């Protein structure tokens, strides 16, 4: 499809949160006139995914007003709490643009939309061996890479991840690649155990979690989960908080043995490259690294649900509130947009 000069505009459809708890598909004319002259690319979306933690907060209107600016995604339209077009997981085919990108599949941090244009610099071509269906894990893998940089496990460490969702799984997957690191995942949802069996990581209920861990990484976005992390870390152990709670407050027992045990509590967030790698890795470098890890077909076990793009207004509410047995929810776009 060549949108310019023959078709300077095309019809595109996008998912919007009209107000907290209510979504809709909007249609609009997409201006493609700059594709040939401004180093832009025209992309037809093929697959997307829900980032359940963040997008649940956005969908439910739980982004604190203090974070409205910091929480904007790269190509967001509208403002919190709504109407807002929000999302950052899109894998699509370049229909028009620079010759070295045309007809290639790429990843882009773009909201849920069938057709869109972005600067060519905003896309990352998929490496060989990474199918478009699996590449939607790239955003979460990028976060996992950043968390691993912040946690800094070394050979011989014991690592526990509290929270068995997509991010927790990818963190465990990366931690397991460090030589002689013992990795376990703790989650109350027994339905997720088969996922961890497939990647060779120990899985257990919180009641059976072992303490004395060198590093504990939290991804459950629950107060109970973070409290558990304090009990699982060894004295002088490192706790890395990778959850985002939106507008919820969390209370921790820091007046007991927290100080005498000299525990370290570290916040990790993907919005900035970890200080450990900031001088050597750009955002583009980090994304390319994350995509390179997605050649392993074992990661396909993370896809527990798939929904059609047009069903997002109806289906998103159920995934925003119910996480039982849910890992990655993949979005499939229609072939004919």
Give a verbal description of the structure.
The chain is of the alpha/beta class. It folds into two domains: 9-136 and 296-332, Alpha-Beta Complex (Quinone Oxidoreductase, Chain A, domain 1), CATH 3.90.180.10; 140-267, Rossmann fold. The chain has helices spanning 52-59, 132-135, 138-151, 166-175, 193-199, 223-232, 283-292, 312-321, and strands at 9-19, 22-31, 40-50, 77-78, 84-85, 90-96, 105-108, 115-119, 123-125, 158-162, 182-186, 202-204, 213-218, 233-241, 264-267, 303-308, 328-332. Helix 8 (312-321) links the parallel strand 16 (303-308) and strand 17. The model is unreliable at 1-5 (pLDDT under 50). Its cofactor is Zn(2+). Keywords: Metal-binding, Oxidoreductase, Zinc. InterPro entries: GroES-like_sf, NAD(P)-bd_dom_sf. This is Zinc-binding alcohol dehydrogenase.
Task: Give the key terms.
globular, 337 residues, alpha/beta, 2 domains, Rossmann fold, 8 helices, disordered N terminus, 6-stranded parallel sheet, 22% helix, Quinone Oxidoreductase, Chain A, domain 1
């Amino acid at each position: 499809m060549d949108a310019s000069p023959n078709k300077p505009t095309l019809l595109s459809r996008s998912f919007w949160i009209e107000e907290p708890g209510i979504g809709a598909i909007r249609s609009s004319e997409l201006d493609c006139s700059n594709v040939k002259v401004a180093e832009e690319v025209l992309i037809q979306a093929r697959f997307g995914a829900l980032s359940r933690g963040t997008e649940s907060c956005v969908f439910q209107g739980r982004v604190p007003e203090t974070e409205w600016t910091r929480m904007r995604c790269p190509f967001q339209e509208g403002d919190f709490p709504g109407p807002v077009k929000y999302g950052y997981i899109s894998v699509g085919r370049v229909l028009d643009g620079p010759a070295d990108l045309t007809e290639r599949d790429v990843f882009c941090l773009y909201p849920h939309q069938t057709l869109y244009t972005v600067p060519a610099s905003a896309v990352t071509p998929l490496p060989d061996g990474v199918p478009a269906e699996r590449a939607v894990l790239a955003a979460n893998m990028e976060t996992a890479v950043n968390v691993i940089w912040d946690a800094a496990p070394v050979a011989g460490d014991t690592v526990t991840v509290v929270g068995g969702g997509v991010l927790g799984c990818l963190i465990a997957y990366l931690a397991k690649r460090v030589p002689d690191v013992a990795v376990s995942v703790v989650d109350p949802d027994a339905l997720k155990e088969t996922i961890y069996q497939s990647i060779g990581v120990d899985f257990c209920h919180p009641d059976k979690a072992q303490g004395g861990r060198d590093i504990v990484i939290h991804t459950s976005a629950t107060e109970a989960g973070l409290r558990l992390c304090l009990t699982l870390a060894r004295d002088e152990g490192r706790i890395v908080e990778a959850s985002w709670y939106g507008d919820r407050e969390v209370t921790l027992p820091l007046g007991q043995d927290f100080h005498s045990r000299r525990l370290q509590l570290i916040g990790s967030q993907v919005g900035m490259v970890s200080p450990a790698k900031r001088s050597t890795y750009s955002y583009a470098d980090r994304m390319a690294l994350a995509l390179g890890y997605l050649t392993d077909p074992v990661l396909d076990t993370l896809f527990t649900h798939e929904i059609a793009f047009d069903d997002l207004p109806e289906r998103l509410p159920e995934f925003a509130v119910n996480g039982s047995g849910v890992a990655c929810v993949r979005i499939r776009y229609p072939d004919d947009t």
